[in-house]
Predict the structure.
Amino acid sequence: DARVTQTPRHKVTEMGQEVTMRCQPILGHNTVFWYRQTMMQGLELLAYFRNRAPLDDSGMPKDRFSAEMPDATLATLKIQPSEPRDSAVYFCASGPGQNYGYTFGSGTRLTVV
Amino acid sequence: RKEVEQDPGPFNVPEGATVAFNCTYSNSASQSFFWYRQDCRKEPKLLMSVYSSGNEDGRFTAQLNRASQYISLLIRDSKLSDSATYLCVVFAYSGAGSYQLTFGKGTKLSVIP
C-alpha cells in the first residue's frame, strides 16, 4: 500500500532548539496538510498545500512555525525556537483531491522539555 | 460554535450491538464529508466517505443531511476490533481560494466482550 512517510517518529528536544519535521506524500497526491494533535485540542490544521503552493497557514503560529514544500516529494514543518507548549503529535496527510479522503502519516511525536 | 461537533462519549457497547454516532457542522458551504477512525497512539485512517444519498460499507452505514448539517455513522454487529475513536471530518471552502479539512474531536467507542 502507498503510504505517507514522516520522519522522525519521535523527537525530544530542549526548549529554544530548532525542530524540523519531514513528510513524503504519496506519489501523485497534489494536496498536503499538516496537523497537530493534543488531548485538549484534538486535530488542529496548521498548513495546507496544493500543487506545492501554500494555500492556508492561518492555523500556524507564524512567529515560530514555518511550512514549505521544496519539491513534490517533500514537505517540511519547522519550529524555531521550540517551546514546551509545542509538545504534541504532528501529522502530515496527503490526498489526490477533496472527494477522495486523505492518507495520514504515522506522525512525529514531539516533546519539548 | 465549533465547526464540527461530536459527542465525545465514551460509548461502551457489548459485542454484537448496534451503535450510532452523530456529528454536526457549522459551515453550510461544506463540500465533502468523511468518517475516520483513530486507534490509540496511531494516525487517523479513512473509514468511509459520506454521500448525500447515504452509503454503506459492510457493517458501516453513513448518512448526510445537508439541510440539517448533520452526519451520522451506524455500526451494526459491533466487533471488539471496532473499539477506537471515530472522527467526523468536513472539507469546506474557507475563502481566498483555500479549503480546510476540519476534524471533530472524535467519539470514543469501546466494544466490550
